[in-house]
Amino acid sequence: xxxxxxxxxxxxxxxxxxxxxxxxxxxxxxxxxxxxxxxxxxxxxxxxxxxxxxxxxxxxxxxxxxxxxxxxxxxxxxxx
Length: 80
Description:
Strand content: under 5%
Helix content: 55-70%
Number of strands: 0
Number of helices: 4
Order of helices and strands: HHHH
Structural class: mainly alpha
Oligomer: single chain
Radius of gyration: 14 Å
Largest sheet: none
Low-confidence stretches: none
Distance between the termini: 43 Å
Number of domains: 1
């Protein structure tokens, strides 16, 4: 069973890597930040498009954007 949990962690690590790469390459974001963290920050600022995305993500994973926000990350965004 431990091998399956290690495999699952490995898959999650790859998914986070892809998420951060997409944030960096497509959206000119901080390479350390996930798109969910960044979208959550935009939702807090009141951007309607971000609120819509967060509502969808919250339907899939309750409080996804809120729990994904990384306050100490994002200073390297090229476009804010």
